[in-house]
């Protein structure tokens, strides 16, 4: 990251703005660039080296198929879906950009500040993708625009290349305002809140139906998306192998902040094989595993602990895995750890068996939770039977007491978002039947807090969660994350095997 010696141009809202101030200095502490210097610096350049498009070559027809479904659901409406704008992290640095999920789903594009517009046209829609082309050689912004100068941030693909790769009409982002002007008062479905400059162009646009409709359509993954989710799970498997391989080294060095080290190890795999992690990795050693969203990951790792690792690689198409494994950091289970682990494994198997076409979404949750409650009762922790604790009559005395230890629902939809399809109505998601092409997690867990007086001392501070990504089909459920072992002895053997073999990249 460079600041000194080059005049940085912060172009706040208008990405095409490249004009420097009178002195040529554009941000605090920048060195002035007089007119003569500007002319000298902008002369004598060939075009900037092209940057290839990063999407898969086969993405276009699938994205077109998704647009056709949205088109049919929003007939005669203007549809506007921005990728989103850059977000400031601090001062003049931005967060890494991640396109809005609806945009990525409809275009297979992930570029910052791009916008999809679907114009009503003869009962259907004509789709146009507006992309930003960065400031090239011959213009001052090539040197001075730290957000969009090709010299500063690398070039982007040409409009022609984007159009050929994604099989869509492409126009420059600077044409968007003029193209939308005739629609300023039209009834528009617009994904608001992602790009303020786009929201301002269509002040009467509404977001509600578009998000709901897209999220309900996104419940069913097409074959291309299923393949990407499989890619995400496969890369995630390799990331888990990476952290297992480094555990002996972490322990040998005293384990200090070992959770953080392993977080970095997994992140390297995510960046190597995909775009990023799909959500903040959770690495909870010992009682940190009882904290559902433990993303501080700053704890030590010491022998005798279980490590709960909940991590997922996000592909370049932005599809993510969401996988949890829990294992003893030395590979050796204590009897209590094993007993607890086997209960969760049995619960997960019961849940996965319910992930069938036609079953309702909550069937996996009910089946898994019943198994957990039954074990909790048999251990003397739950004072009532599973039948009482899992009663659908929530007013019944004793109902729901297992929730002190199970804490969360067993499933959620998975796709481009880790908690996918959040805007879908309850009647099609939570209360709706599963269908072929749905992908959901099955992730039961047991959590005994360190300070919970209701459990025997031997259980306190222990946490187990097992999470896999399940594809619903016409037949049996397909486990996309089956590449990682689950049986306790298989985990021990897997760890020894991985730790005896070199890393692969
Ligand atoms: Mn999950």
Give me some keywords for this one:
single chain; 505 residues; alpha+beta; Creatine Amidinohydrolase, Chain A, domain 1; Creatine Amidinohydrolase; 2 domains; 5-stranded mixed sheet; 3-stranded antiparallel sheet; 16 helices; 13% strand; globular; disordered N terminus; binds manganese (II) ion
Strands across the major sheet, in which order?
Answer: 6-5-4-1-7
Strand content: 5-15%
**Alpha-carbon distance between the termini?**
27 Å
Question: Could you give the count of β-strands?
Answer: 17
Q: What small molecules are bound in this structure?
A: manganese (II) ion
CATH fold field value of the largest domain: Creatine Amidinohydrolase
The parts where pLDDT drops under 50 for at least 5 residues are 1-25
Helix content: 25-40%
Looking at CATH, the homologous superfamily of the largest domain is Creatinase/methionine aminopeptidase superfamily
Task: List the domain count as a whole number.
Answer: 2
Major β-sheet, in short? 5 strands, mixed
| Secondary-structure arrangement, i.e. CATH architecture of the largest domain | Alpha-Beta Complex
């Amino acid at each position: 990251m460079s600041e000194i010696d080059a005049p940085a141009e912060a172009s706040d809202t208008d990405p095409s703005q490249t004009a420097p101030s009178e002195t040529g200095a554009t941000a605090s502490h920048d060195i002035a660039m007089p007119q003569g210097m500007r002319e000298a610096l902008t002369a004598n350049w060939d075009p900037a080296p092209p940057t290839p498009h990063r999407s898969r070559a086969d993405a276009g027809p699938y994205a077109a198929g998704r647009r056709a479904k949205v088109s049919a659901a929003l007939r005669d409406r203007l549809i506007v879906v921005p990728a989103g704008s850059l977000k400031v992290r601090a001062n003049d640095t931005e967060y890494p950009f991640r396109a809005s999920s609806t945009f990525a789903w409809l275009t297979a594009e992930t570029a910052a500040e791009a916008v999809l517009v679907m114009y009503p046209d003869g009962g259907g829609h004509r789709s146009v993708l507006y992309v930003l082309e960065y400031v090239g050689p011959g213009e001052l912004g090539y040197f001075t625009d730290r957000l969009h100068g090709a010299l500063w941030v690398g070039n982007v693909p040409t409009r022609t290349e984007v159009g050929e790769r994604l099989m869509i009409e492409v126009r420059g982002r600077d044409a968007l305002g003029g193209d939308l002007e005739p629609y300023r008062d039209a009834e528009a479905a617009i994904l608001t809140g992602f790009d303020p400059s786009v929201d301002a162009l269509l002040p009467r646009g509404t977001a509600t139906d578009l998000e709901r409709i897209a999220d309900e359509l996104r419940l069913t993954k097409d074959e291309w998306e299923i393949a990407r989710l499989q890619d995400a799970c496969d890369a995630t498997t390799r990331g888990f192998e990476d952290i297992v391989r480094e555990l002996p080294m972490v322990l040998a060095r005293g384990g200090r902040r070992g959770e953080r080290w392993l977080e970095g190890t997994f992140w390297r795999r995510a960046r190597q094989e995909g775009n990023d992690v799909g959500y903040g990795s959770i690495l909870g050693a010992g009682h940190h595993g009882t904290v559902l969203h433990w993303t501080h990951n700053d704890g030590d790792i010491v022998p005798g602990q279980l490590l709960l690792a909940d991590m997922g690689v996000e592909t370049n198409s932005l599809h993510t895995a969401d996988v949890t494994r829990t294992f003893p950091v030395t590979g050796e289970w204590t009897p209590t750890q094993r007993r607890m682990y086997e209960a969760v494994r049995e619960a997960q198997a019961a849940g996965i068996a319910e992930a069938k076409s036609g079953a309702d979404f909550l069937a996996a949750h009910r089946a898994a939770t019943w198994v957990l409650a039954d074990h909790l009762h048999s251990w003397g922790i739950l004072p009532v039977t599973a039948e009482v604790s899992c009663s659908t009559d929530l007013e019944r005395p004793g109902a729901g007491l297992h929730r002190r230890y199970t804490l969360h629902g067993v499933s959620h939809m998975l796709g481009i978002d880790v908690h996918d399809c959040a805007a879908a109505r309850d009647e099609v998601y939570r209360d709706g039947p599963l269908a072929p092409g749905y992908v959901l997690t099955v992730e039961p867990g047991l959590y005994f807090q360190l300070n919970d007086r209701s459990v025997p001392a031997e259980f306190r501070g222990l946490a187990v969660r097992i999470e896999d990504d399940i594809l619903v089909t016409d037949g049996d459920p397909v486990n996309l994350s089956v590449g990682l072992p689950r049986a306790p002895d298989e985990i021990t053997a897997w760890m020894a095997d991985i730790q005896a073999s070199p890393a692969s990249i």
